[in-house]
Amino acid sequence: TGNTVLHILVLQPNKTFACHMYSLILSYDRNKEGPGSLELIPNNEGLSPFKLAGVEGNTVMFQYLMQKRKQNLWSFGPLSTVLYDITEIDSWAEDQSFLELIVSTKKREARQILDLTPVKELVSLKWNMYGRPYFCFLALFYILYMVCFTMCCVYRPLKPRTGNRTSSRDNTLYVQKMLQESYVAYEDELRLVGELITVIGAVVILVLEIPDILRVGAAKYFGQTILGGPFHIIVITYACMILVTMVMRLTSTTGEVVPMSFALVLGWCNVMYFARGFQMLGPFTIMIQKMIFGDLMRFCWLMAVVILGFASAFYIIFQTENPENLGQFYNYPMSLFTTFELFLTIIDGPANYDVDLPFMYSVVYFAFAIIATLLMLNLLIAMMGDTHWRVAHEQDELWRAQVVATTVMLERKLPRCLWPRSGICGREFGLGDRWYLRIEDRIDPNKHKMMRYTEAFKVQDRDNCDKGSEKLETNGDTLCKKEMSALSLSRSTSRTSSHRGWEILRRNT
């Protein structure tokens, strides 16, 4: 019951009342330091009160709990050293990491905790010492891997075509070699080494990604843009396309260009994932993901309807014409592709003025240009501009969240020998087995002096107002005008002293 009340207090909107009641309940806890402590008992979702405060974005309760858990090591004048307990914060030995919970929640208030002490210092320590070097090395290794795969595709085994052409539009010169013909020369053996590296890399990607999907869940793993959800879909699809290409090569199945083309596009697009390692480019990856899966997904439904309608109309108009003179609409699939190009203004209106054009072509093309080019494309630009404005105002928070997500990802996947635990063990200071982060703080004496002056002036103004109100209530109605003038005089004289103090504060600041 006590643990349930603690979780309820974390969710209370009145933060000050919740903190006082939290302390009151813990004062009756018999096992304050043992494993049976109320603060260590999780709820049905596996969240302790401390983690629940982070997930809900309750910064007041989080700071209150951190102040309870900190240890003042020493202080000398304005300098002080504090030990912050990071047992539940550090993701090194946690199955359900506090940092991962913060970046995976949908509440924006939770990301503000990443800018508070000691979370900010812990993330900065992990990222600067281990995260950034490992992430840059991983980006360089992936680019080299993609270059190897691209060269294997460029020099794939082909041979001249031997059969006769069946159509005047047939333009094929080379065909795919059979498996027995693909690895004969010395150049083929070099390509074989690159292909083996590509396949091994695809298997490693699947081995690293599938356990995380099973641990977190597919909806949460692919749905969070900060965690790189769309990029996980891209890299898994890329690995599957590599394996499909390998099977088609081993079975001498024609058509390997289809999965190979998909793999090249997806593999190189995944390079954008490594932009999150740089503060200048990191928020732009979030922006691209929100535009693709937000604005473009909604816009594509409208675009598909318009393209289907006008492509059908163009095909019907040119159905009776000679396809050699107007080849852009010679069949229905080509009509769809040509209309898509017209929609994006990639090409101009295809028209051969050496022959007579149908009258309805001009009417339909006029309507298509007004609806598609002038109306719908400008609507898409406006939607993307709004998304850019919203993400630009959150770019600092998004950058910190990306750094945290990347750090947690690297810490889970790398061996323990390459990523030691951050912080100091409490046994060195006689504080048990908990781990602490030492932070040095410098207290500005001028800041505290000005805060004391501010409080003094506020109290003086409040006392003057209280005295004036008491005089106003005790006097009768017959002396109202006289007392009001006296009150205004007393307020003006009292205001001069406090006003002078406020002016001093303004000039100092």
From TrEMBL:
UniProt key word Lipid biosynthesis: no
Gene designation: Trpv5
PANTHER family in UniProt: TRANSIENT RECEPTOR POTENTIAL CATION CHANNEL SUBFAMILY V MEMBER 6, TRANSIENT RECEPTOR POTENTIAL ION CHANNEL PROTEIN
Location, primary (coarse class): membrane
GO MF assignments: calcium channel activity; metal ion binding
Keywords from the named record: ANK repeat, Membrane, Metal-binding, Phosphoprotein, Repeat, Transmembrane, Transmembrane helix
Protein name from the UniProt record: TRPV5 protein
Compartment(s): Membrane
Keyword ATP-binding: no
Topology of the protein relative to the lipid bilayer: Multi-pass membrane protein
Organism of provenance: Loxia curvirostra (Red crossbill)
Annotated coiled-coil segments of the chain: none
All copies of domain Ion transport, residue ranges: 135-394
Gene Ontology CC: plasma membrane
Tree of life domain: Eukaryota
Transmembrane segments: 134-158, 192-210, 231-251, 257-275, 296-318, 359-381
Single GO BP term: calcium ion import across plasma membrane
